[in-house]
């Protein structure tokens, strides 16, 4: 059995799934991906309300059951693939999934931080992971990368008995809906990602120290006086609007030779993520 299947806890209540779908923006015109579809309980309910479901299951044995259960449903496309290797739709799509907990970060990195991003994503995840993606606790790096493009919120808290087998952790549904207008333009995205990663992966106590190779003392003084934050603030206390302001100043005022210092920082972060033990991947700042 592969690493994906052994960490999944499957929802069993069709009425609960219907109620959850009703809390989303999924409509009859949508293409929806169900990641880690298992035996197909989510895909079956999704197929009743959307145009097409792409039901993805990597585990061979589960995929055979999925085919048996859903082959007769005309608007479901079955895929026996890993979502991490699968090509995502180029046109608009949405995601509604109970994803494997041990690859949550890798899935969200592909969906939300990749090139082909969904209009919205509704994911069953560990509550601790959801809070990190929302910027609580240790998740400020990935949260700061996501928030210019998406609103994040928890829309449901599950009971252990909603699953088989019952999970030993708190589980929620995390909703990520695309902003009407992103806070970062597409042409600035790579530089923004590198800037955020450069600042976050440094193990230094304050924002000022993390930025001292980019901004002069006078520049940083101007930043905190006009940005509404204290000179000794730590990065976990920055909201997304301050990050956007910092990046705008970095882009406008920092000379090219200093901008080169951040180049490749996001790629470095991703390499760190890939090497980390599966259970710790959502903890990387």
3D architecture notes:
The protein has 285 residues and is of the alpha/beta class. The chain folds into 2 domains: 5-178, Rossmann fold; 186-283, no CATH class. 38% of the residues lie in helices and 16% in strands. The protein contains 12 helices and 9 strands. The protein has helices at residues 14-22, 41-47, 60-70, 104-112, 127-133, 140-146, 189-201, 207-211, 217-227, 240-253, 256-259, 265-275; strands at 10-11, 31-35, 52-56, 76-79, 94-98, 120-126, 150-157, 163-164, 171-178. The chain has a 7-stranded mixed beta sheet. It has a two-stranded antiparallel ribbon with strand order 1-8. Strand 5, helix 4 and strand 6 form a beta-alpha-beta unit. The model is unreliable at 1-6 and 278-285 (pLDDT under 50).
């Amino acid at each position: 059995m592969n690493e994906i299947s052994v960490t999944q806890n499957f929802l069993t209540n069709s009425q609960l799934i219907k109620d959850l779908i009703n809390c989303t923006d999924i409509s009859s015109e949508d293409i929806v991906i169900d990641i880690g579809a298992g035996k197909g309980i989510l895909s079956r309910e999704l197929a009743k309300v959307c145009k097409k479901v792409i039901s993805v299951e990597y585990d061979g044995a589960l995929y055979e059951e999925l085919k048996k259960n859903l082959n007769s449903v005309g608007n479901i496309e079955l895929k026996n693939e890993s979502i991490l290797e699968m090509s995502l739709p180029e046109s608009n799509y949405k995601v509604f999934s109970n994803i494997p907990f041990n690859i949550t970060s890798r899935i969200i990195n592909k969906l939300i931080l990749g090139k082909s991003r969904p209009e919205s994503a509704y994911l069953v995840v560990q509550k601790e992971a959801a809070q990190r993606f929302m910027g609580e606790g240790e998740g400020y790096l990935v949260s700061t990368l996501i928030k210019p493009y998406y609103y994040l919120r928890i829309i449901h808290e599950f009971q252990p008995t909603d699953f088989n087998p019952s999970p030993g952790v708190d589980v929620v549904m995390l909703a990520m809906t695309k902003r009407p207008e992103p806070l970062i333009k597409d042409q600035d995205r790579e530089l923004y990602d590198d800037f955020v990663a450069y600042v976050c992966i440094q193990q230094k106590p304050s924002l000022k120290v993390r930025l001292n190779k980019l901004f002069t003392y006078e520049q940083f003084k101007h930043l905190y006086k006009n940005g509404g934050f204290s000179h000794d603030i730590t990065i976990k206390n920055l909201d997304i609007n301050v990050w956007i302001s910092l990046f705008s100043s970095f882009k406008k005022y920092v000379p090219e030779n200093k901008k080169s210092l951040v180049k490749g920082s996001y790629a470095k972060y991703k390499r760190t993520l890939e090497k980390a033990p599966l259970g710790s991947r959502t903890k990387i700042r």
